[in-house]
Amino acid sequence: MAHSKQIRILLLNEMEKLEKTLFRLEQGFELQFRLGPTLQGKAVTVYTNYPCPGETFHREKFHSLDWENPTEKEDDSDKYCKLNLQQSGSFQYYFLQGNEKSGGGYIVVDPILRVGTDNHMLPLDCVTLQTFLSKCLGPLDEWESRLRVAKESGYNMIHFTPLQTLGHSRSCYSLADQLELNPDFSRPNRKYTWDDVGHLVEKMKREWNILCITDVVYNHTAANSKWIQEHPESAYNLVNSPHLKPAWVLDRAFWHFSCDVAEGKYKEKGIPALIENDHHMNCIRKVIWEDIFPKIQLWEFFQVDVYKAVEQFRRLLTQENRRETKSDPTQHLKIMQDPEYRRLGCTVDMNIALATFIPHEYFTFPFEEMALSAEESLIHLPNKACFLMAYNGWVMGDDPLRNFAEPGSNVYLRRELICWGDSVKLRYGNKPEDCPYLWAHMKKYTEITATYFQGVRLDNCHSTPLHVAEYMLDAARKLQPNLYVVAELFTGSEELDNVFVTRLGISSLIREAMSAYNSHEEGRLVYRYGGEPVGSFVQPCLRPLMPAIAHALFMDITHDNECPIVHRSAYDALPSATIVSMACCASGSTRGYDELVPHQISVVSEERFYTKWNPGASPSDTGDVNFQSGIIAARCAINKLHQELGAKGFFQVYVDQVDEDIVAVTRHSPSIHQSLVAVSRTAFRNPKTSFYSKEVPQMCIPGKIEEVVLEARTVERNTKPYKKDEHSINGMPNITVEVREHIQLNESKIVKQAGVATKGPKEYIQEIEFENLSPGSVIIFRVSLDPHAQVAVGILRNHLTQFSPHFRSGSLAVDNADPILKIPFASIASKLTLAELNQILYRCESEEHEDGGGCYDIPNWSALKYAGLQGLMSVLAEIRPKNDLGHPFCDNLRSGDWMIDYVSGRLISRSGAIAEVGKWLQAMFFYLKQIPRYLIPCYFDAILIGVYTTLLDTAWKQMSSFVQNGSTFVKHLSLGSVQMCGVGKLPALPRLSPSLLDVPYRLNGITKEKEQCCVSIAAGLPHFSSGLFRCWGRDTFIALRGILLVTGRYLEARNIILAFAGTLRHGLIPNLLGEGTYARYNCRDAVWWWLQCIQDYCKMVPNGLDILKCPVSRMYPTDDSAPLPAGTVDQPLFEVIQEAMQRHMQGIQFRERNAGLQIDRNMKDEGFNVTAGVDEKTGFVYGGNRLNCGTWMDKMGESDRARNRGIPATPRDGSAVEIVGLCKSAVRWLLELSKNNIFPYHEVRVKRHGKIVTVSYDEWNRKIQDNFERLFHVSEDPSHPNEKHPNLVHKRGIYKDSYGASSPWCDYQLRPNFTIAMVVAPELFTPEKAWKALEMAEKKLLGPLGMKTLDPDDMVYCGIYDNALDNDNYNLAKGFNYHQGPEWLWPIGYFLRAKLYFSKLMGLETSAKTMLLVKNVLSRHYVHLERSPWKGLPELTNENGQHCPFSCETQAWSIAVILETLYDL
Prior knowledge:
The protein is of the alpha/beta class and 1465 residues long.
């Protein structure tokens, strides 16, 4: 039952582009692609670039995946193709429908990181990273002593800024040579190489358990890089990017202007050499506007030389062989930009003309200074202009997917760039061929990095062209398959972040705690970046793949951030570091933070070295650090704790904002139910200068505090104050932390006292009162459940292992449990019948009400749909995947035991095997009630899932092989049989003959007598489920084949057929059964559906013909007899069948008993007169009159206001097409049986004009066959001789809905009823004509879930049913249009089955297309079934599949016909 492999399902839907959706997976997972509802039944091919087993990854190499279909039939609900994920990175998939691309996206598979001599795994959530500026490490032989600080502080990953040769600015990110190790790391007598770095990195991995990553910088290179001078094409220069020429001219003008200001040349215009105030700025604006702009005349770069253009125009006009051009009024004269950007170099399109009649420098300038006019000449000399290169930088609020240096962007001209004047922006083009040297150079750089490091940080990722980063990372992953990729993104949008994460396979996105403006926001970020809520539901191993947010590397400070001591206070270092470290994701910091360095360590100007590790150093030593320095001792403890929490599965998170400065973060393990609670008092304001209250709120911690893992306080000590050292990056010596680890609560200096209180029965909380939780303090508690609850959880988990191996960890076996729990639940379930499962799983409000109960009502929400387990499971299925623990359902469970007791008590109150299920649940709930309330929703759900899935398996085992071997859709639909078939408090069926074998009996609870308890089929829930209105002849027999025969419930089918047979009267089967004694015989079709079911039973059931000899206890042996007790008059079934046939041939005419208001408050008097018979000439069954409605379209008008009361909306008198088809089916079948001497009658004998006349079944069969198409088919030829009313024809090539109606135009209405005749009597139809009629039905009547009951072109069509509406619209009031447009589900089954049957006669291609159509239509039913809380299919929908509030939410015949269609497939 339970999978242990993690499987995720990705549903594919038509035109669904998911490139901006992040799907994260782990290695070892299986990813299944399945068809969503829009694609089921269509030819879909999935392609991916995830490599085939044994092959290497190539981004451009896609291959198709093979579909697997475990059931190999019916439908596409289980069809999937899969990937077994064993490789990390970003992989793309897309899918085609036929040959057209229909959708796609990316998946990101996380790397597996390993460390240590044993190569053990380091989960991503355990990462604790520290950033080092490489240039501050000194010579390589001193690195170990400086890096040891990270090891001793408990970090397991080091991030180095680039280790390459730096450019002249000395910025860590401006690299002069990407391939050379920075020479600063060597000594005069010893040159170090990349191999030496590699040895150190490897040693740290093996011996220190530390992984190393470093930056890759793809966006720019130092302006003084030698190679860029040799390959200027690698930069944006004025030769390959002439669109930058105007920006360059402007840049130089500003440069000269700046020099002139500095030399005092603009003093007389109010601009001194030192700019100090707004007045100076205004003077600068004035000069730029009045002097500089007019001088450089930038506009000329975008203008036309008018004289030249006019001259060219004149020449063109006067040339003799000029080509004629047509005038187009929509085209206007446009300026065409000169591609070389020369002054006045723009032109106009002559064809259209003829037809219409201060800051930084932005560019490098490696030449001697000259006048501005002389400089401008350089831009036209390619050998010089190629060295005028654009600097890189950053544009506020720019679109990160747009390259701001490409044509079309005016960033340089509008001077929007925050420029980095030391680095030239690199120009890759679209592919390696566009700039071969640059791509090769950077690839080699990437490969060096991947050879020596386990991961990379993508510097300036948001500005790196995606295709470049993709190419480089692909090269890196070839050398380091589990490459850890981190990046910082400043896109401002999660959707845009996802584009980078999915395309590049970024493992973790850097997130900054420094972005939090207060402690509340810092706590919110912890909750945002990882983990799930405490008490979350257990998710199944096989589940949908949900969109994720990028995995976070949450850093208390990055090397780009301002110093938090300046920004906040030194006292905040410890609490904020603790809060960050408690996040369920990777965490990190930057060297200097732990030592309390009170300034930002600049990536550009810092040249001092980091301090070294020295256990014996004193706090005032500036060159060494140890556990006495800054917060290092506490950092070591919280880093170790962070790693323990990640490794041991503490992945549930709760953040509590205790007050404005205090944040409590809980990390909880859902398997051992232990928690770590970190209480941090932040100090965003300096405690020395700001007020902090000494009164700290009391805290309540549920459970038992095992120990104080850590308590630490930031304190001052008596040393010299901080003085910036010249050689070492030193921290504040006068502030440190007092740290105590693993102490008992009574030893704590921060906790004043701890009391134990009870919150509810058996729920304990510890009330903590603090005394020294000063700003800058943290205390971390390890909390277990109280011992009693811990045992209860262990026992629960032990019993849950029978359902899932997930619960083995933390389980506890005990001997003194309730004896019933020693029996496996599957064994208890195996004793249940399907009728008993109906009571355990289903039963709606009115069914349950009969037994004196009702459905559970959740306060502030709504009542459950079912009293049985399905009512609960439908709600849980909604809230479990979303972990919606705030739902009123969960609130109710946490607040008290009412729902828990309801579930078990309801079953215990019943008897036998049902009560055993209740007792088993009660025994489990005994332990459930002993665990903390916050855990109850999770364990209640786990118990119910185990029980529910076992019960479903029990149900399926009692069904047919078609169901047992069927698809998920078939299995779930077959549960409709359990849902609809039950036994109420009072039996709904008349009693069967006492001589009949295998009839179920029970003891009546009141009379204590034995009584029959046969299941009956409810017509629909919730409206037709109990009492008199549960059983209807027509509904029962339309549904019986699908609900009972297809599912293999043959005995129940037999009993229902025989019970109704006993009620035959006037040759009819009742419509409303009313237990037989209150039956109404006002429908003409139920008897024919009954006969069809007997035929189906005989054909589908082994030895099915035996039913013909079964005894039928006749309730009404004559039309006028009083109801007789069972066994008084018994007849074999074949005699009852013959009577029905004979009575129809004789002609039926009677008036309903008790005619009048007491049985129908709307019917007019004439409507109570029932007639039916067989036309002598045609053999067609006919009947009815204009004031009654004897077919399934039986809506009677009810509105006085609209004057339709007592008038049927659809009388369908005459010969209704489906009844003629059902009659033909019955006659043909009886003819076959009589020929084989199985049925003893060959004819019917009737009195006509005082004589006995015999009509053989052969003759009757022939008459219908000969006349059907002649009289029912509407010819496509308007002058066809068979057409009596050509003026009434509305659609041609269809079959009439009836023949001989009192209102002849009704015969010609297009409705879906002819498809029923096609299924039961296909021999009546010429395949070609049938196919055309089906095509018309498809075009006009087919809806998403059902069939329109009337042609939308008909003047009385209305597709929205509102039974409550009472207005003066005759066609709508009081739901008069019930069958005049709304889309009913059950006819769609017959439409699809007819399509399948006739498509096979129309050729292979048509058959294949039809199969796809049928599967696609059925997929919508599957989706509805899965989403419906009723777990059924509705009676009808409004037009275009809209929900109809007046419909039954689940209807027996709707479920039945879809099961039959799947059976036919």
